[in-house]
Amino acid sequence: MAVEVYLSQEKIKTRVKEVAEQINKDFSGKELHIIGVLNGAFMFTADLVRHLDVPVTLEFMSASSYGDGTTSSGKLTINLDIKKDIKDKHVLVIEDIVDTGLTLSVLKKNLLERSPASLKLASFLYKPARLEHPVDIDYLCFEIEDHFVIGYGLDYAGRYRELPYVGIYCED
Ligand code: 5GP
Q1: CB under 6 Å to ligand 1: residues?
Q2: Does the pLDDT at position 71 exceed 50?
Q3: CA-CA-CA-CA torsion for 128, 129, 133, 139, nearest 10 degrees?
Q4: C-alpha 171 – ligand 1 centre gap (Å)
Q5: pLDDT exceeding 90 applies to what percent of the chain?
Q6: Which domains, ranges and CATH numbers included, belong to the chain?
Q7: Residue to mutate, 43, 77, 126, 154, ligand 1, most ligand atoms under 8 Å from C-beta
Q8: pLDDT above 70 covers what percent of the chain?
Q9: Going by CA atoms, what residue is nearest to atom 15 of ligand 1?
Q10: Short-list 169, 167, 123, 160, CA closest to 142
């Protein structure tokens, strides 16, 4: 198997810092509760928060989604939930990639039912070619073409999450 570098470590570093600066501006004077979505967003979450200068609390959540075949909303299975009551809190959800958009759209619906003061979404990657469930991404690092990517938190069969860059997985 070969991995072709798609987004270099340097490119990622620069862009993550820019996105963090935007978040700092937008949340100036506020406190932020961050929810990193496991497993894929662990690296992006860790890098992003290092550049934040607003007060943050942080938890991780793990959820899987699947379409129920009759509605476009899908169902959400929460494997690991947050413990904090987010009512009246400013919440930022951090995802690895928006592909069909199903996971983030059902997760957003679930979290909005808990009445946060605000709910913003950040995603490291977005693949517009695959989108089926439109969801507004408030903070995005990179829009990418329709490739299956690995690295920087993203896996192929559980592997390659540790790569510090994003690569395209090529079977050979
Ligand atoms: P959704 O289709 O619900 O937007 O994405 C669900 C999940 O599929 C993502 O959070 C991510 O874990 C996984 N996924 C989607 N596209 C890719 C990809 O190109 N590479 C990898 N490794 N995972 C992906």
Answers
A1: 40, 65, 95-103, 148-150, 154-156
A2: no
A3: -10
A4: 18
A5: 83
A6: 9-146 (3.40.50.2020)
A7: 154
A8: 94
A9: 99
A10: 123
Instruction: For the chain, give percent helix, strand, coil, nearest 5.
Output: 25, 35, 40
Active site annotation includes 99? yes
pLDDT at 70 over 50: no
Catalytic residue among 47, 81, 88, 99: 99
Higher pLDDT, 64 or 42: 42
From residue 115, give the alpha-carbon distance in Å to each of 68, 109, 126. 25, 10, 26
Mean pLDDT of the 54-83 span? 81
Task: Check residue 68 and give its pLDDT.
Answer: 53
Tokens in use for 27? 């949340």
Which residue in 133, 127, 104, 93 sits closest to 6, CA to CA? 127
Sign of CA dihedral 22, 26, 32, 38: negative
